[in-house]
């Protein structure tokens, strides 16, 4: 994913240290191996999840036919048989989000624990830093696709309505063994979010901070702000961006940058947009705005609609204006 990149870190810029973040060739050391294997077992399924989402067609026509002809048993059966496999697929996506959540928390534990600073962790444990970036990259890709598929919520709403009415007797109701009422409730909340994977990771990061009370909050927020700075520098510096072998690498960096900004905004009490933030929000937004609109529309929307503190009074007006 491009050549080895030398980047100044945001948190230690005044001291001048720098390090390489290799998003392509980083391999786990023995100390990283256990966590790397755990997270890799999740990430290796990510492309299949994205392919499944991309090929999601929905049962819109079948559902419309069934609703318009409520007494036609054949149309009811056809709609139900079309929706059930889709609900199983939606459960698979949701279950993957839980695995991704576990992987993220394992990485945060490694990248924030004493005695090293988060910056030292990112420099020393490049393979885990790469996996952290890959999780965020997947997350933004998933959510960008999901936002373009309104059929997901329509299909699931029809499924829930049909189950609750119990108007279809003995017709593939074994699906309730796969998606019981509790699972359906959790899935409904998940898919109601505009960016469900990012919401999952935001909650996971917040829970990580809450559950690790002895770990200074700065360990987590500095890890996130440093990642944002690394990606921003790679995007805005011709010396680095010229080494990218394809536009996919640019998109990778943009998605990771936006992902860590959102996580930072949810975890830090003052958010990412405050003047005291360690993330150069104006610079990050400027970098995004300089890219082709088609590449960044979903990312800018994620910043606008998924962050927690954008509309706080402490957010500079020029930041809000840039995102309009």
UniProtKB/TrEMBL annotation:
GO CC entries: membrane
Pfam family, one: CYRIA-B_Rac1-bd
InterPro entries the record matches: CYRI, CYRIA/CYRIB_Rac1-bd
GO molecular function, a single term: small GTPase binding
GO terms classed as biological process: regulation of actin filament polymerization
Signal peptide: none
PANTHER family, alphabetized: GH09096P
Protein name as annotated: CYRIA/CYRIB Rac1 binding domain-containing protein
